[in-house]
Amino acid sequence: xxxxxxxxxxxxxxxxxxxxxxxxxxxxxxxxxxxxxxxxxxxxxxxxxxxxxxxxxxxxxxxxxxxxxxxxxxxxxxxxxxxxxxxxxxxxxxxxxxxxxxxxxxxxxxxxxxxxxxxxxxxxxxxxxxxxxxxxxxxxxxxxxxxxxxxxxxxxxxxxxxxxxxxxxxxxxxxxxxxxxxxxxxxxxxxxxxxxxxxxxxxxxxxxxxxxxxxxxxxxxxxxxxxxxxxxxxxxxxxxxxxxxxxxxxxxxxxxxxxxxxxxxxxxxxxxxxxxxxxxxxxxxxxxxxxxxxxxxxxxxxxxxxxxxx
Length: 310
Description:
Layout: H1 2-29, E1 45-53, E2 56-64, E3 70-79, E4 91-93, E5 96-101, E6 107-115, E7 121-129, E8 139-144, E9 147-152, E10 155-156, E11 169-175, E12 187-189, E13 193-198, E14 202-204, E15 207-209, E16 212-217, E17 223-229, E18 237-240, E19 247-253, E20 256-270, E21 274-286, E22 297-309
Parallel strand pairs: 1-10, 13-22
Antiparallel strand pairs: 1-2, 2-3, 3-4, 3-5, 5-6, 6-7, 7-8, 8-9, 11-12, 11-22, 13-16, 14-15, 16-17, 17-19, 18-20, 19-20, 20-21, 21-22
């Protein structure tokens, strides 16, 4: 009986030693007992807008997987030499891109291809670091057909592209919003407006125009762009979105698109260097052919923007 108890005690001690060793090993895998680090970059949708690529403009949306290190995105490329009405005629390509990201450091790598014009292939890569809003904006470089462009930031790249920069002011509000978006909510619609003047004739809908003005405002995550066809504009002139063929105003956010179909805007002041516009009860509805866009909203207010010759 004495030996049995002694052996039992030995077995118990050995069992406890094994448990302690296993516990130590498990704790070691977790970093001395600490919980695994949580990625600040996982499961995110991030946007970089208004990136200048030679004579083109580009907007990038990046999606990161919730688990693992898979990244994907869409690079929307527009012909900036013809204006900024990318909701309709100016998108030349919107290729998907795929790659990876580092869940701990945010390092990003994407590749993709597209054709423009048909039969002419282009290869692009996107290398950079994902942002951690609001503390930093990250960075990225786009290499298109062997030429590197950038660096850019996530968010609005108007200033970094040497565009109109600061100086624009807006006092715009959204009301009656039922749109299925994140940015367009009732209240202030913030963002720095930019404007361009394009002196180049073109034919649209059978009408010959001597150029156009473009006005753009892009809060983080969304983009509102307006064209005024024809350069003959004077202070006090009012345009009706429901009836005037000279106007186009639309809003884009994460693949959802809305177009103004009613309301007016008045050019209250215009010069070679700036433009001031007042919007009155401008109503937006989902753009034709925009899958997934529902609801609508109303825009009111005034903006003043510097004008750059494009």
